[in-house]
Amino acid sequence: MDFLFDNPLTNMSGPLFLIIYGLIMLFSVIFLILFKSNLDWTSKLPAPLIPTNPDPFEIAYLRGGENEFARALVFALTQKGFLNITTEGKESYICLAQNQPNWTTLSQIERNALVWFQTKRKTSEVFEPYGIKEIIKPFSLIFEQNAIQNNLLTPEDVKTKTKRFSYLIFGAIALLGGYKLIAAIIHGHFNLLFLVGFTVIGFLIFRYLGKTKRLSQLGKQYVESLQNAFERLRENPKIAKEYYSQSMPVLNSVDPLLLAMGIYGTGVLVGNGYSDFETAFGKANKNNQDSSYSGCSSGCGVSCDSGSSSCSSGSSCSGGSSCGGGCGGGCGGS
């Protein structure tokens, strides 16, 4: 029994043990990082084919979730002339354009989203839990189910295995640290702050490593294959459309810039006439404040007075129809 707490390990000096303890933790972290990808069995599956009719919204959702889906929707509506983005001081706002095109040209997703913009919105509100993300939720669920069926999102069993494996490794390290801690107390050594600190840091590291990415290995490969296949869109979407339309005639009905944004994100808009959009949503990511407004400023076009059921004077919708029924009533015959 004496050997249990009287051996080379328990008698080892504190600084030396900390060095060995730290190295064990370091090599364990490296091992977990290298081995972690092997737990994802989707990497062994064949990559999905490039779609002949790519949906920019579904691609945006796959690449970055509901936030990217919402960005793509706002951009599509802005590009088609339904929305305006203005800057007031440090804030950017989105509201209806003054001359509304015909709503019948919009898809159901776009119509549902446009209803949400009947009142002036901060760009940061686009990313809040409630609002446009609630409106597009039914479409997000469809995209999510498609991604799950194609193994593009990390499977639940991979998430569970990764978490368990991470905690198992840390548990072994924590047992070693705990054993040394008890032995030190028995020998009358109470300067254990660094040992406890190492263990806590290790717990935080392995807890982080126990998490998995949203996209599976197959999902990452698929997004990369899309980015490689449509590389010309990133350089010049309008010119590239002519190139791709020869092999993919269906792209004649898909806006090249919207598709490029869905595949690459808002960064592709810089240099293509929409730098202000990228800047506005860059601010929104950093400054996501919970605030709502009841009406649009005059610079945005259509506006609604707070507490009133009618639009402010001078506001009208395209096609000769005037606004009515309040802010949520819609325009253009919707």
Could you estimate the helical fraction of the residues in percent?
Answer: 40-55%
N-to-C CA distance: 83 Å
Shape: elongated
Strand order in the sheet with the most strands: 1-2-3
Number of self-contained structural domains? 2
Structural class: mainly alpha
SSE ordering: HHEEHEHHHHHHHHH
Uncertain runs are 284-334
Total beta strand runs: 3
What does this structure look like?
The chain is mainly alpha-helical. The chain folds into 2 domains: 2-39 and 155-209; 56-151 and 216-296. The protein is 51% helix and 4% strand. The chain has 12 helices and 3 strands. It has a 3-stranded antiparallel sheet, covered by helices on one side. It is elongated, with a radius of gyration of 28 Å.
Which SSEs are present, and which pair or pack?
Blueprint: H1 14-36, H2 56-79, E1 83-88, E2 91-96, H3 108-116, E3 121-122, H4 132-135, H5 137-149, H6 156-186, H7 193-209, H8 217-229, H9 231-235, H10 237-247, H11 256-264, H12 275-286
Antiparallel strand pairs: 1-2, 2-3
Helix pairs in contact: 1-6, 1-7, 2-3, 2-5, 2-11, 6-7
What key phrases describe this protein's structure?
12 helices; single chain; three-stranded antiparallel beta sheet; mainly alpha; disordered C terminus; 334 residues; elongated; 2 domains
